[in-house]
Every structure is written in C-alpha cells, then in structure tokens.
Amino acid sequence: MRRVWRWAGASLVVLAAAPAQADELRDAVTADLPALVELYKDLHANPELSFQEVETAKKLAARARTMGFEVTEGVGKTGVVAVMRNGDGPTVMLRADMDGLPVIEQTGLPYASKRRAVPQTGIETGVMHACGHDTHMAAWIGTAQLLSERKDQWSGTLVMILQPAEEIGEGAKAMLDDGLYTRFPKPDYVLAFHDAAQAPAGHIGYANGFALANVDSVDIVVPGVGGHGAYPHTTKDPVVLASAIVMRLQTLVSRELNPTDSAVVTVGSFQAGSKHNIIPDEARLQITVRSYSDGARKQLLEGIARIARGEAIAAGMPENKMPKVTVADPYVPATYNTPELTQRVVARLKPRFEGRVFEVPAVMGGEDFSQFYRADRENVESLILWVGGVRAEEWAKAQKGEITLPSLHSPFWAPDAPVVIATATEALTAATLDLMGKP
Ligand SMILES: [Zn+2]
Ligand SMILES: [Zn+2]
Q1: What is the Cα–Cα distance from 309 to 315, expressed in whole angstroms?
Q2: Which parts of the chain have pLDDT scores under 70?
Q3: What is the pTM assigned to this prediction?
Q4: Which of 73, 216, 411, 434 sits most deeply, having the most CB atoms within 10 A of its CB?
Q5: Residue 206 CA, ligand 1 centroid: distance in Å
C-alpha cells in the first residue's frame, strides 16, 4: 500500500508534555476541551448530508451569536457566516465544513450515528461523519471562543464560516455565488484544517504549494451498432470500441504528460450490454481525472476527447455516431497553499508544536476549500493544514504492520477527537493571533 503521509522518522511526542514555560493559550484550550468534546459527540451522533445541514448550522450559529459574532444563516443554502469586527487590520476567514456522508457507521462508539437520510441518489442510507467534519466544527467553535475572549490581543476583522456540501464539491461555490465576498468582508487570509486518517494524532501536516488535486468527472457515451452476437460483421461493437478507449486512456499519464507532473485517469465504471449473445448499441464510461496544474488538467481533458473520437474513427464509426464526452461542470479545482502564508503560519506553529509539524506531499483527493483562493487569486492567500487523528497505540501497531488503518470516508474511521480538536483549536487560534496580532 502506498502511504500518502511521510512521517518516517517522526518520533511520537507525548502530547501531555508541557511546554518549557507556562502557555496561556494551551491552558485555555485544555480548559475548554471537555465542552468541545461534548459538542463533538453531539455533532457526531447527528450528522446531516450535503446541503441538508439545517440543524447543524442552527446549533452552531446560535453559539457564535452568544460569543458576540454578527451571524447570517442561509448563505449558499445552509451555510453560516459569523463576523466579528475589531478595529483596523487584516480580514482573516476561518472555515469549517459541516456535511456528513452517506455511510453506515460501524465504529461501535457509544455516540455512533444511527441517523438515516436520503442523498442526491434518492436512495435512503445511513449518515456518518466519516470524513471528520465534526472535528472541524468543534475546533471552529473552540477557536471562535478563544478569539472572542482575546479581542484585546488582535485587531482586524474575523470572518468565521461554516460551509455546506464539501463532500459533493458544491458548498464553497454556493457560498461565493451567494455573496460571501461581496455581502461580507472579503478575507486577506483564509485558513482551514482537515483531520488526517494516515497521520498520528496531534501532528500537523502542511503541503507547500498544491495540497489537493483538481477533480474532474468525465462521462463518455460510446455509440455502436447493435445486433446478434453471432453476426458481429453486421454490427459495430461498442464493447470492443469502449475497451480500446479504456486502454488508450492509460497512455495519457504514462506517455503524454510530463513525468514530473502527477495525474490520475481512472475509469471507475464501464457499462454495456444485457445478455451473452447480443451486441449492444451503446457503452458508457465514467472516469475520474485528477491533476494539479490548470495546464495538466486541460491536456488530460483534451486528450480524453481526442482518444474517444480517434478510437471511434479507427473502429469505422460514422461521423454522426462519435462518442459523446461530457465533463462535469463545475469541477473541484486544486487546493493551493500560497507560499507566503504557509511559511508564516508554519514558522509560528513549529516552535509551539515542537516536533509535531511536518511538510507532507500533495494528495490526489479534492477539497472545494480551493474555491476561496481561486475566487480572487490576486488578493487572497490561503492555507489548509492536516491534523493527524490516529490514536498513538493504533499508529504504533500500523507502523509494525499489525493493523491497517481505515481511511477517511471509511465506516470505521474514528479519530482521536479530543487530540484533533485541541491541536486544531490551538493551531488556528495561534495562527490567527499571529496574522491579526497587535504589536
Ligand atoms: Zn470527505
Ligand atoms: Zn472532508
């Protein structure tokens, strides 16, 4: 198994170890943690699907209001924007995502979700915070609390947002389309974190530059000319044609893209036919395409269209029966950590979390957090951090090969929530105080 995280050589730090001198911020996080863990358990037991985060949004909006934020609900359907103005200075936006996944929880935890709901597919299913967005929200509340109590230590405008529908890649865009940067103060800096299922709890990972990939979904309908399986010469077999397309697609990354530019083209679904002896009149392919740069993305998408058409011509298909290639719009663009902000925050976090902050490579997963930077690349700097969530004892077993760790989205993913929430709350608060701190 290819390990995404490279924590090799990183020795596990005892998380309870106190820093050399008294740390007021860490003490405050420790004091707030029991209440945040209670909130986490409540959120975990009551997950809601993308764009259905109604109760979640309401619950957290009410809390932000009691802390003194101006709160607007219903931004981008179920999104929440909480603003705290505190004099001159930069505008910092902190984002947490709210949605759970259509996954039936199998963690066996006492606060495991028993919720059911109907996703976009229309088929009822269990719902679970299998991506750990509940840890994001608990740390968001923790950070809001600490910053609202420390208004004497910072100056500027704090915008805290709760984003819907990250899992379907539409929530960030929905909030932007609903005026996130026009109805509310536009941020100079945007920060977020994501829990990590392949890293020890309490460790912080950052990618320099690209952090997550462009995600494109491509559908190809491949027409053929159907007929009897025993008389193939009277047909144009779309199974053979689509197979040729699938094989030729493998050369896009291996033969056409610059080898130092990473990308993935995966055909995840190939459907055709109904019976042994019938040549169908159509085949359908569903493809996920992952890349980082805009250039690589364009090259791959153009290549897919060219290969589909080229193979159809080679198969003797007439012009009016060329494959139909559809690229889903909108797509999830690559998440980019802007270098200046990344270096600044990392410089702040490294001494605070001694031995627990690591540079990590980009991954091929996607995150629509990218949209907040891409909405104004000239003026917005952005950074997403990873916060490891694997319990120390499980991490040790996995390193010895005794267990395989569940990934994000697994029905078994149960992060070490108190450690994730404490680490993220402290990290986001420290980073924000650094960006908006009074000299
Ligand atoms: Zn997810
Ligand atoms: Zn997620």
Answers
A1: 10
A2: 1-22, 439
A3: 0.91
A4: 216
A5: 18
